[in-house]
TrEMBL record:
One of its GO terms (cellular component) is plasma membrane. It catalyses: a CDP-1,2-diacyl-sn-glycerol + sn-glycerol 3-phosphate = a 1,2-diacyl-sn-glycero-3-phospho-(1'-sn-glycero-3'-phosphate) + CMP + H(+). The chain crosses the membrane at residues 12-34, 40-62, 83-107, 164-182. It is found in: Cell membrane. GO terms for biological process: glycerophospholipid biosynthetic process. The gene is pgsA. It comes from Alkalicoccus luteus. Pathway: Lipid metabolism; Phospholipid metabolism; phosphatidylglycerol biosynthesis; phosphatidylglycerol from CDP-diacylglycerol: step 1/2. Signal peptide: none annotated. This is CDP-diacylglycerol--glycerol-3-phosphate 3-phosphatidyltransferase. Belongs to the CDP-alcohol phosphatidyltransferase class-I family. It is a multi-pass membrane protein. Gene3D superfamilies: 1.20.120.1760. GO terms for molecular function: CDP-diacylglycerol-glycerol-3-phosphate 3-phosphatidyltransferase activity. Keywords: Cell membrane, Lipid biosynthesis, Lipid metabolism, Membrane, Phospholipid biosynthesis, Phospholipid metabolism, Transferase, Transmembrane, Transmembrane helix.
Length: 192
């Protein structure tokens, strides 16, 4: 297994650590940061989440720079992204920090595209991430981070950046999902 794939797998292993910090009340209290009152456990969860999300960029950069792109990586990378995002949005929804309707739309698209990829792989085809899929992932990561950090950079200015990013993530998620299905409709219409 090459280094980019190991980095991707490390992202998967960080998900339970993220969930522990997010969901377990350790009684650590909270602190005020740039106008936002942030529970220490949410801050710790955000740090782990951001580190895990950053490995998405790192594994891709490393794979492209050293020509280590593999079919395993093309499969694992989007899967790791989906697992991380699913954990974040389900956890945040359960804590009433993220709207359920947005989580359902985002996760429905994620499962639908995963299904499309599975059907394609059955006929030996790998559907790589598109540019819209990459922007969708970035918007989801920024939205989850803004919610986890209680809108820290924008709270004093009264800008609902976290809400803006939730809507941006939903729009890009739906658009990229439609884009995948339009560009790969042959996968579903093929008689193989």
């Amino acid at each position: 297994m090459n280094i980019p794939n190991r980095i991707t797998i490390s992202r998967i292993f960080l998900i339970p650590v993220f969930m522990i910090f997010l969901l377990i009340d350790f009684g650590w209290g909270s602190f005020l940061l740039l106008g936002a009152d942030i529970p220490v456990s949410h801050f710790a969860a955000a740090v782990v989440f951001i580190i895990a999300a950053a490995t998405d960029w790192l594994d891709g950069f490393y794979a492209r720079k050293y020509n280590l792109v593999t079919n395993m990586g093309k499969f694992l990378d989007p899967l790791a992204d989906k697992l991380l995002i699913t954990a974040a949005f389900v956890g945040l929804t359960g804590m009433d920090m993220f709207p359920a309707w947005a989580a359902v739309l985002i996760l429905s698209r994620e499962f639908a595209v995963t299904g499309l990829r599975l059907v394609a792989s059955g006929s030996g085809e790998v559907i790589a991430a598109s540019i819209w899929g990459k922007w969708k992932t970035v918007s989801q990561i920024v939205a989850a981070s803004a919610v986890l950090l209680h809108n820290v950079l924008f709270e004093l200015a009264g800008i609902p950046f976290d809400t803006i990013m939730i809507y941006t993530a939903v729009v890009l998620t739906v658009f990229s999902g439609v884009d995948y299905f339009v560009k790969n409709k042959h996968v579903l219409t093929s008689s193989d």
